[in-house]
UniProtKB/TrEMBL annotation:
This is Transposase. Gene3D superfamilies: Winged helix-like DNA-binding domain superfamily/Winged helix DNA-binding domain. GO terms for molecular function: sequence-specific DNA binding. Keywords: Coiled coil. InterPro entries: Homeodomain-like_sf, InsJ-like_HTH, IS150/IS1296_orfA-like, Trp_repressor/repl_initiator, WH-like_DNA-bd_sf. It comes from the Bacteria. It comes from Anaerovibrio lipolyticus DSM 3074.
Amino acid sequence: MAKYSVEFKLKIVQEYLKGDIGYHALAHKYGIPDKKRIQFWVAKYRVMGEKGLQRSRKNETYSFQFKLHAVELYLSTEMSYQELALQLKLKSDGILVNWVRRYRAVGIEGLKPQRKGRRPKVPDKTSITPECNINQDERLKQLEEENLKLRIEVAYLKELRRLRLEQEAQKRKQGSPTVSEDHSN
């Protein structure tokens, strides 16, 4: 059972949207440990309506391309997990956290659909065959995936460099007025 019912969440969201009370006061009033949870409910309600507050009973499946796009967006923008989950209309930001974690640990392979169930006792024939028998189409696909991964990494590093340069420029700007004031006296 969910910790908070849909009715409870909806009541809190509507009370907040009336404008009489803030996140912190609502959290205190209803004994919710963190105001961020209420902020997330309100944001989900604004984006998805009442459906955004409901707990899904079915396991949503997402395509490999969608997962890759989501991870790419997260790594190349400055959006938080929560903001991006809302933009992509994911039920929770935890899904996105897992995708990014798997991508960082395993690479693109971590985003591909996993086999369900117990592993067979007899090894697959594909694992027995040597790697030199991989046909050209599979090799091309592997290289394209590696290329995409490297492009994402380059975009991430460029953005990181740009942000560092901006921070350094701001530090220089903040430091320069005080220096000029000291010299004018």
